[in-house]
Amino acid sequence: MLLAVDVGNTQTHMGVFSAAELIAQWRTRTERARTADELALTFRQLLSMNDLSFPTHIEGVVISSVVPTLTAALREMVERYFGFTPVVIEPGTRTGMPILIDNPGELGADRICNSVAAFALAGGPLIVIDFGTATTFDAIGERGEYLGGAIAPGVEVSADALSQAAARLPRVELVSPRSVIGKSTIESVRSGVLLGAAAMVDGMVDRIRTEMKGEPQVAATGGLAPLVLEHCTTKSRFEPTLTLTGLRILYERNV
Hints:
Elements (H helix, E strand, L loop, with lengths): L1 E6 L3 E8 L2 E9 L6 H14 L4 H4 L2 E6 L2 H15 L4 E2 L20 H14 L3 E6 L2 E7 L5 E8 L1 H11 L19 H26 L6 E5 L3 H5 L7 E2 L3 H13 L1
Helix pairs in contact: 1-3, 4-8
């Protein structure tokens, strides 16, 4: 079985694959200072919840990480407790996807995983949107080449920044507003943050499409994707485990 680990700035998403089937998955808060031993304890507990263990079931580990300190700790954990070297998605990893940007080495591992998985699932041309700490847009050509993309503040980042910068604006729960025109401060913030994010997504997709050949489909992932997508006019395919699927595909291309 394969253990796939996607370390984001806010959350870490993990899953276990048996061949191509995702049989278990978990999310934890990303804590940048955790040691290899602390990580091993967490993974042991999570695996045991599904009657899985390090030595008996896990034959490979693949890691995507945007937090360098945790990347190093995860490498150490896998080598010490699993007994082999993990596949880490980084510059030089075989992706099977031409990266047509000025500096391919600066492209985030999670965006590579998303792009590879989305193209494998839907073909191209394609626009991939990930609703995470940042909201990212990635453009994939008809033949599976990575063309570039855009990065915007994530929905939660925008809400946090608003409450921190404006003394009288509260941090609100991110649920759909009753209407665009809010009748209270809380409803107004929800409208601006969520419906504003939806309008941004529609606008960005339209602008990206004008620069791409063909009629690109749209694939979306990320925990807050459903909350924003329900207010978008853009038709999209929601894939909640897109990054983990990309990790599995990239592992198979490198081992």
